[in-house]
């Protein structure tokens, strides 16, 4: 009961936050006029027309398809690299320069570099998102491996547990659960990077291209509608991933 | 059979254990007593083979080792049943289903039927400890290492767990090293006891309990516990005086 009341007040504050943004937005719209800042209601109308047009849906599908591929590739490469590096200290040193470059380099610069070297295309946008997301997940995995419970490792050795069982029942769960929040972060990061990469690479389909077309046509309500759709999509993806994992997590982390 | 011969172990140039020797015959229980930090857990780790001594030798013809650690050490993301099944996975003679059945039966023996699908975080401290004991026994170990398995449990739970341990031993005999700091617990279970003291830790006294466990009555237990308590107290006194330990016990 106490919990549900807490939850309700949390939702209330969130609703209040949304209302405040809406009110500020409405005020700006009235101040600048619909050509520069479309009102919330006009934007919502544009959202619905985008969502009910085949073209709009195709753009969304394209971008999120690329994001999904990028997230999968990123998770596999970064978690594998992080786990290997966790066990082989030389690999940490070997990967450090690359990791530092990826952290330091501005996303736009890397995208331009990729175009310069490999030309434009969908594969390149995915590569950019994976490369820029790598340090986040790699670092988190490395930390997770390093903070593995030494006592559990000794238990494995005392009971002569085979390496495969150790991997499946010990290392992988420990790492995945520790890295999970970062995978959620990476999902949001990838959506943002993807839209940027799509624009710079000059893709023809996707949310990025749709945004630049809207800008060229001065269709501000469409521009705003895309922003709204992206924000909602990131929230929905994170919420869904969280929901899928939380049920299981809450069970074994109960009372912590 | 398990034998330690002149085992020495140091951590960071500090000698912890010095010249430890003892011999444990088949299906016997050796209690190890001594103050906190003396090196009792270190002895168990050396016996389990998870820690290498600096010098000296360990002889053991034991294959399957069950280790109940000072803490439960369960996998938090696995249920009680999966935690017990874990140690059976090496046993290729059993199918996955047979392993799970065996583990479930062991949980039941420890009064945990109905909790097989609970995660460690959903169990009480005593229940977690029982899962750890089930994990050690399900292997049908021929060497059991118990590191203060009952500390932190209330008296009722402790004596019922001790009873269970005795039943399990009658059902499946094993060599056992039993670390405790309670003389009462030691004389209840052990066939022999050693006391560690000094810095570095060495064996300063030993004691045999020749009466079979089933024949030990309250007067006998009281007398033996008093004897062991006196040894422990004497140790403390002599420690304040000289640092010389008397050496070995076998
Ligand atoms: N991995 C380690 N690195 C450094 N020192 C250690 C390590 N393990 C144990 N020690 C030291 O060795 C000594 C003995 O430790 P041990 O855990 O064997 O004590 P114990 O007799 O089991 O104590 P307690 O009754 O408190 O459990 C302690 O002084 C401890 O600080
Ligand atoms: Mg200890």
Described by strand count, sense and barrel closure, the largest sheet of chain A is:
none
Main sheet: strand order of chain B = 5-6-7-3-8-9
Low-confidence stretches of chain A at least 5 residues in length (pLDDT < 50)?
none
CATH topological fold name of chain B: Rossmann fold
Oligomer type: heterodimer
Overall mean pLDDT of chain B? 88
Structural class of chain A: mainly alpha
Distance linking N and C termini of chain A:
20 Å
* Proportion of beta-strand residues of chain B: 15-25%
Helix content of chain A: over 70%
Highest CATH level, the class of chain B? Alpha Beta
Q: How many separate helices of chain A?
A: 10
Query: CATH homologous superfamily of chain B, by name?
Result: P-loop containing nucleotide triphosphate hydrolases
Number of strands of chain B: 9
CATH superfamily of the largest domain in chain A: MetI-like
Give the helices and strands of chain A as they follow along the chain.
HHHHHHHHHH
Shape by Cα distribution of chain B? globular
